[in-house]
């Protein structure tokens, strides 16, 4: 999986090539991705405590609102697996509480929670792209297909 710098100041959808970020196949589908991105070094501040990490992350992060080329089938797969993962996670929590309230041992039910959490992490890692702040302050798309990365580099050279 490749990493592509997509902007230094303000991201625009038209500078991204019309190639799916996960499959590398040409597409006209766009998905809106929103969030906050922090630089990689902000994660190391967790060593100084949760409050320090939250403080540094909130000060160093930047909001983004991107239109990313993503094939409808790939995005649907990501959303379906995400929903199934969340359902598994929350069923484990609910079943553990119910079994515990009935006087049983709800620990075994928490395995569903752990399974749901693992599925959620693996799905996000495999089926979505990440956004982070690069060293120069620009936004970078991570975990993208090599074809998308090559098309983005060609597009950047032309402009």
Helix content: 40-55%
Distance between the termini: 24 Å
Radius of gyration: 19 Å
The geometry reads as flat
Q: What class do helices, strands and sheet pairing give?
A: alpha+beta
How do the helices and strands follow one another from N- to C-terminus? EEHEHHEEH
Regions with little confidence, pLDDT below 50 for 5+ residues: none
Strand order of the largest sheet: 1-5-4
Largest sheet features: 3 strands, antiparallel
Number of strands: 5
Overall residue-averaged pLDDT value: 88
Strand % is: 15-25%
Note the total helix count.
4
Number of domains: 2
Keywords:
single chain, alpha+beta, two-stranded antiparallel ribbon, 5 strands, three-stranded antiparallel beta sheet, 159 residues, 2 domains
In short:
The protein is 45% helix and 20% strand. The chain has 159 residues and is α+β, with helices and mostly antiparallel strands.
Q: What's the topology here?
A:
Blueprint: E1 2-7, E2 30-37, H1 50-60, E3 62-69, H2 72-101, H3 110-127, E4 130-133, E5 139-144, H4 146-158
Antiparallel strand pairs: 1-5, 2-3, 4-5
Helix pairs in contact: 2-3
Description:
There is one protein chain. By secondary structure, this protein is α+β, with helices and mostly antiparallel strands. It has 2 domains: 1-21 and 30-69 and 129-159, no CATH class; 73-128. It has 4 helices and 5 strands. The strands form 2 sheets. Strands 1-5-4 form a 3-stranded antiparallel β-sheet, covered by helices on one side. A two-stranded antiparallel ribbon has the order 2-3. The longest helix is centred in the middle third of the chain and has 30 residues, at 72-101. The model has no long low-confidence stretch (mean pLDDT 88).
């Amino acid at each position: 999986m490749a990493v592509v710098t997509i902007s230094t100041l303000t991201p625009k959808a038209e500078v991204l090539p019309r190639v799916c970020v996960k499959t590398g196949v040409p597409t006209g589908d766009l998905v809106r991705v929103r969030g906050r991105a922090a630089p990689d070094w902000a994660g190391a501040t967790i060593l100084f405590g949760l409050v320090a990490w939250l403080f540094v992350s909130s000060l160093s992060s930047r909001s983004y609102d991107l239109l990313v080329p993503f094939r409808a089938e790939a995005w649907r797969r990501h959303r379906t697996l995400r929903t199934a993962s969340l359902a598994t996670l929350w069923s484990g929590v609910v079943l553990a509480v119910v079994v515990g309230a009935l006087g049983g041992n709800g620990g075994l039910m928490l395995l569903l929670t752990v399974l749901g959490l693992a599925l959620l992490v693996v799905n996000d890692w495999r089926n979505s792209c990440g956004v982070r702040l690069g060293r120069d302050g620009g936004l970078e798309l991570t975990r993208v297909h090599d074809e998308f990365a090559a098309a983005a580099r060609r597009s950047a050279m032309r402009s």
